[in-house]
């Protein structure tokens, strides 16, 4: 299910009233895709790399309509619309802009929109739901473990379905071969494997956890990220999130008080 780019631009990042009152510079940079998060934007400002109307910026700087913001020499145009899409990542695609191995990448499947980036990662052998956005603040909230946004994975093992006691062990936590401690929020049996709920997303962590209990994974499918479900979406396709999904995603990321 492919779309043209135009229908994506429905949800404004900066409403008119925000512009009139001025937008904090770090928020502007994050929403414009110039920084992956407001924290990173603050680092850029402190480093003296950002200017507003030709003058060095500070953390207290605000941006108003008509202001010119630059990161180094690069002009940062104002963010106009938020884009959030759901991609059904196929196996064999890397979550990177350019593959060192020559493998195809998820950017070949996603629409070409300035600042659009994956929210988290799925390794090359994994499949399923991969969200993209040009909203850096949203990305930080959905990926950092301290915010506790859940991710749900359906896994299959050639050894079949793990017994309940081993799945409870995943919930208590296991030590991986690397020596790291890993813990599932929930682990439930499912025919041929399990359904694992996590609040972290370290590289191949779910695979390593299943291997630690003696049930190595041969297939991993992410079926849910926060409130967004993969559902019956066709492999390799992307879709725009609807208004209801966007509101639910913001609630999961920022809480009832919002941004």
Characterization of the model:
By secondary structure, this protein is α+β, with helices and mostly antiparallel strands. Among the domains are: 12-75, Structural Genomics Hypothetical 15.5 Kd Protein In mrcA-pckA Intergenic Region, Chain A (Roll), CATH 3.10.290; 150-225, Pseudouridine synthase (2-Layer Sandwich), CATH 3.30.2350.10. The protein is 23% helix and 27% strand. A hairpin with a 2-residue loop joins strand 6 (69-71) and strand 7 (74-75). Helix 2 (25-31) packs across helix 3 (38-46). The longest helix is centred in the C-terminal third of the chain and has 12 residues, at 243-254. Mean pLDDT is 88; it is low at 1-17.
Keywords:
about 260 residues, Structural Genomics Hypothetical 15.5 Kd Protein In mrcA-pckA Intergenic Region, Chain A, disordered N terminus
Our Rg estimate from Cα atoms comes to 20 Å
Strand coverage percent: 25-35%
- Helical element count? 7
Uncertain regions spanning at least 5 consecutive residues: 1-17
> Describe the biggest sheet?
9 strands, mixed
Outline of this structure?
23% of the residues lie in helices and 27% in strands. By secondary structure, it is α+β, with helices and mostly antiparallel strands.
Spell out the blueprint of helices and strands:
Elements: E1 11-12, H1 16-21, E2 23-24, H2 25-31, H3 38-46, E3 50-52, E4 55-56, E5 62-63, E6 69-71, E7 74-75, E8 81-82, E9 84-89, E10 117-118, E11 127-133, H4 136-143, E12 151-157, H5 164-172, E13 174-175, E14 181-182, E15 186-190, E16 193-198, H6 205-212, E17 217-225, E18 228-229, E19 238-240, H7 243-254
Parallel strand pairs: 11-17
Antiparallel strand pairs: 1-8, 2-5, 3-4, 3-6, 6-7, 9-11, 9-19, 10-11, 12-16, 12-17, 13-14, 15-16, 17-18
Helix pairs in contact: 2-3
């Amino acid at each position: 299910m492919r779309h043209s780019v135009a229908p994506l631009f429905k949800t404004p990042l900066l409403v008119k009233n925000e512009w009139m009152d001025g937008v904090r510079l770090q928020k502007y940079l994050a929403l414009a895709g110039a920084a992956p998060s407001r924290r990173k934007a603050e680092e850029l400002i402190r480093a003296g790399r950002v200017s507003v109307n030709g003058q060095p910026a500070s953390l207290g700087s605000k941006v108003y309509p008509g202001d010119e913001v630059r990161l180094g020499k690069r002009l940062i145009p104002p963010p106009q619309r938020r884009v959030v899409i759901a991609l059904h990542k196929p196996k064999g695609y890397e979550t990177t802009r350019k593959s060192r191995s020559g493998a195809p990448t998820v950017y070949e499947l996603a629409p070409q929109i300035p600042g659009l980036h994956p929210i988290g990662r799925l390794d090359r052998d994994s499949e399923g739901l991969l969200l993209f956005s040009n909203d850096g603040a949203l990305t930080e909230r959905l990926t950092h473990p301290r915010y506790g946004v859940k991710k749900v994975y359906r896994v299959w093992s050639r050894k079949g379905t793990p017994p309940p006691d081993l799945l409870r062990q995943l919930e208590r936590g296991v030590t991986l071969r690397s020596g790291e401690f890993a813990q599932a929020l929930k682990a439930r049996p499912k025919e041929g494997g399990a359904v694992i709920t996590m609040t972290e997303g370290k590289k191949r962590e779910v695979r390593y956890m299943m291997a630690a209990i003696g049930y190595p994974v041969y297939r991993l499918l992410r079926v849910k990220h926060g409130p967004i479900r993969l559902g019956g979406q066709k492999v390799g396709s992307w879709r725009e999130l609807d208004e209801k999904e966007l509101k639910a995603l913001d609630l999961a990321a920022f809480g009832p008080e919002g941004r």
